[in-house]
Design a protein that fits this description.
single chain; two-stranded antiparallel sheet; extended; alpha+beta; 3 helices
Length: 98
């Protein structure tokens, strides 16, 4: 885990924030890392394919069946519904801890 920040912190909420700290502008640092990887020929992500994109789009992330008590929601279905109604140009971060 790498933390790229103009003011990196060692601890967050009493826990180690990262394994490596880099003091930099995140966007500029990411561009520099990508450029260095390209120069080494290390950016060919062979796992990315049209088939993987189709599976991500069409297959459920978790198809396991669980008994849901009356009056409660399956959090997976709630997130599916949010994904359906929230405009695609919005950024949304969700924690699913119960």
């Amino acid at each position: 885990m790498v933390q790229i920040d103009t003011e990196p912190v060692g601890l967050r909420n009493g826990m180690k924030a990262a394994d490596l700290y880099l003091r930099a502008d995140a966007k500029l640092a990411a561009a520099a890392v990508l450029e260095a990887l390209r120069a080494r020929g290390k950016t060919n992500a062979g796992i990315r394919s049209a088939e993987l994109a189709r599976r991500i789009r069409d297959e459920p992330a978790d198809a396991a069946q669980f008994a849901i008590e009356p009056g409660l929601l399956d959090p997976r279905r709630a997130i599916d519904e949010l994904d359906r109604v929230i405009p695609k140009d919005y950024d949304c971060v969700s924690g699913s801890g119960h």
